Each structure stands twice: as C-alpha cells, then as structure tokens.
C-alpha cells in the first residue's frame, strides 16, 4: 500500500493531509538521526487511524533513508513499543 505521508523538509515535519486537514510529526535531524519531537492529529481526524498511518509512513521513510530514530514524542514512543518491527530504528532505548 502506498503511503500519502510526505516529508516537508522545509518545515521539518512529516505530514498526512486528509481532506483539508493536516496531521503532522515535527522532527529534528542531526546527521543520520531523526528525533520525532511532537505529533499533532487535529480533532477532526482523531480516532480514525490517521495518527497510525502518519507514523507508519514517517517511520518507513526513516528506514528507507537508513536513518535512526529518537522517540522524544510520547505518541512515537508508544507506537514503537507496540510495533516491534520498528524497534530496530531506535538510536537509543525507550
């Protein structure tokens, strides 16, 4: 399945647009380490799986670039704990 998540490098965030509403993950890059700092899913999209779709797409992009992840954001940390297939991306333990 193709992801609709995009990397908006100019604003340092991964984005998923649903209709006219955008969910996003703010990040910081330092070399080949990406720190997910904050995830924002607007109320209009809450409870529809948008946060999970956004996270999957963003983590898949991190993997594709050969980068490592720092899960500073609580949503990111909880997602990675629950989805073992992404734990190899961690630059440091949760």
Fold blueprint:
Elements: E1 6-8, E2 13-18, E3 21-30, E4 33-40, H1 50-64, E5 68-71, H2 74-82
Parallel strand pairs: 4-5
Antiparallel strand pairs: 1-2, 2-3, 3-4
Explain how this protein is built.
- The protein is an alpha+beta fold.
- It has helices at residues 50-64, 74-82, and strands spanning 6-8, 13-18, 21-30, 33-40, 68-71.
- It has a 5-stranded mixed β-sheet with strand order 1-2-3-4-5.
- A hairpin with a 2-residue loop joins β3 (21-30) and β4 (33-40).
- The chain starts with 5 loop residues before the first strand and ends in a 12-residue tail after the last helix.
- The mean pLDDT is 94.
Low confidence ranges: none
Main beta sheet: strand number and arrangement?
Answer: 5 strands, mixed
Number of DSSP strands?
5
**Which bin fits the share of residues in helices?**
25-40%
**Structural class determined from secondary elements:** alpha+beta
Q: Let me know the average pLDDT.
A: 94
Portion of residues in beta strands equals 25-35%
Order of helical and strand elements: EEEEHEH
Cα shape: globular
Radius of gyration: 12 Å
> If helices are DSSP runs of H or I spanning 4 or more residues, what is the number of helices?
2
């Amino acid at each position: 399945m193709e992801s609709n998540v995009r990397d908006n490098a100019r604003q340092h965030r991964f984005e998923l647009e649903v209709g006219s509403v955008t969910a996003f993950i703010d990040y910081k890059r330092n070399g080949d380490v990406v720190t997910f700092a904050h995830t924002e899913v607007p109320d209009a999209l809450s409870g529809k799986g948008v946060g999970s779709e956004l996270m999957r797409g963003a983590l898949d992009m991190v993997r594709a670039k050969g980068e490592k992840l720092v899960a500073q954001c609580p949503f990111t940390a909880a997602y990675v704990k629950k989805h073992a297939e992404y734990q190899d991306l961690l630059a440091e333990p949760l």
